[in-house]
Amino acid sequence: MRMPPSHDDHHRAGASHDPDLASPEAIARRMVTELPRFGSWASAIRDFETPHGKVGLRQLAILWLIRYDTFGPEPLSATSLAVHFQVQPSVITKALTRLETSGLITRTVDPADSRRSLIAITEPGIEVSRYVEDLFIADMMDSLSRVESIRWDELARALDVLEAVGDDLVRKLGQTRKPTRQRRQPRPILSQPDTDPDR
What we know:
- Helices cover 52% and strands 12% of the residues.
- By secondary structure, it is mainly α.
- The strands form 2 sheets. A two-stranded antiparallel sheet has the order 1-2. A two-stranded antiparallel ribbon has the order 3-4.
- The longest helix is centred in the last third of the chain and has 23 residues, at 123-145.
């Protein structure tokens, strides 16, 4: 049974009609307050039972990055992953060891630098990544199905904007300019601190 609309529902429904609520500052404020909830949802489960055994959230994030070739032509290493997740290389090394032991990745010596290992995802690793991704997608689709009158084309365009904004925010993480106020830099979704950081 659907509950009657709350005050917040009315507030959100009127956002597109109230000029003040549609101002750039108001939209930025909503993004800052609403989007972290997606991160909390995505990182709420720390371990996933998969057809290839239990896999931790950190390991899944690494598999996802490798599978989608996030780093492009740059050789993938524990160091580059540590920079991405803003953690010590030893944390990533432990996660990679677990992935390799589980047969989800392979590590080979870099012929250009014997001190480095090249990381590649295996077929079981791809299967695990897709399996968990499908769980997230199914959960998201279930929630979307409960929202009335979705305009899918508008939502798709809004996601394009969010993607562009996200790319720019990530770019800013690499800048060395002093921030206007002291704060902890945000972490990407699926890289929130784990109760067991080695996972």
